[in-house]
Request: fold
Amino acid sequence: MKRFLLLGSLLAAIAVAVAVPLAVTGGRDASANGGKHRRQSQRMVRPTMPRTPSVKSLHGGRKGNVRTFRLTASQFTQKIANFPIKTVQVWGYNRSTPGPTLVANRGERIRVVIRNKLPEPTTIHFHGAGAPNRDDGVAGISQPNPIGVGKRHVYSFIVHRAGTFAYHAHTDSAVQELRGLDGFLIVQPRRVPASQKVDEDYAMVLQQFAPPAEGALVAPFPPGTGDFPFSTINGKTGDASGGPLTIHKGDRVRIRLYNASNLSHSMHLHGMPFEEVSKNGYAIPRESRSKETTVNLAPGEFIDIEFNASNPGNWIFHCHVPHHTSNKMMDGYHGAPVGMTRIFHYAGYRPVPPGYFRYGG
Ligand SMILES: [Cu+2]
Reply:
C-alpha cells in the first residue's frame, strides 16, 4: 500500500512537471526549444524586405521623414512571354510593367514625383494607402486637371498604416490600367515580433495583356472571345520568368498578390496549404485564419498569403482559370502550365527541367 502511495505521488510530480511548462507555452511550443521560441516571439526585429521577382524595388531618397520616389510614365517595349509572341509595347512606370514596387516605412511622408511621357494625360491613385482627397488621383473628380502630356506632378501624403497597397493610373482607366500602368506600394512596419518575421517576402502583380501582333502595342480590349490571351505575373508568363523561386525547407514564405487585371484570378498553390494573413491592406486576425489551397482575387484586390515550406519539391503556384495557364491557348514544355504560373523550388531538390524556361512553343 505504501509503495502504491509513493508511486502515486511520483506520477503526480511528473504530471505537474510536464503540465506547468505546457501551460506557460500554450502547449504548441512545449518542445525542448519551446521556451526559446516564446522569448523570440516577444523580441522585435526589422521586417524582411519584400522582393518583386522580375521587377525592381524603389526605396526612393530619404530626407528626414520624407521619402521621394521618381516615376516616369511612358510607352516602351517589354518581353512578356517566350511564345507565340515575345515582345510587346506596353505602358508602365520607369520602363516596367508592373511599375517598380515602392517601399516606404510606416509614418513617413511619401512624395511621388511623376513625369508624364504618355501620349495622353494621366493621374496616379494610391489604392488603400490613405491619401487625402487632394492626392487621390481620380481624373476629373479629386484631380480636376490630370497631368498633361510632358508635364510633371507631385503627390505627397503620410503613410500611417503598414501593409500591402497598390498604385495605378486613374485616368481613362479602361485603357491605361490594362496597358500596364500599375504597381505595388508596400509600407513596412519599423519592427515586427520575431515570431512573425517571414523568411521570404514575394510580391506578385497579376496582369493580362492582349497584343495584336509581335512588337505591337497591347490592346486594352481583347478581340474575339473577350478573354485576354496572355496572363502574367510581374509582367512575365511562367515560361519567360527566367527561373524558379528558390525556397528552403522550414521557411515561412509570404506572397503579396495584387490583381491589376480586368478579370478574377483563383490562385492555387501546390504542395502546401497557406493562410490569408492580410486582405486589401488590413491584417486578418490569427483566430480568423484557416488553411486554404486556393484564393480568388477580384479585380483591384490585394491579398497576402503565407505558407510553411514543409514539403520539398518543385511546386507550382498558378491561376486556376484554365485559359490563364496558357499563352494564347498554347501550353508549355511537354504540356506544362505557362501564363499566370510561377514555380517554387526547394534548395537541394532536383532542379526544375531547364527546358521549361527555354521552351519556345
Ligand atoms: Cu486567372
Observations:
- The mean pLDDT is 91.
- DSSP finds four helices and 23 strands in the chain.
- Residues 196-357 form a domain with the Immunoglobulin-like fold (CATH 2.60.40.420).
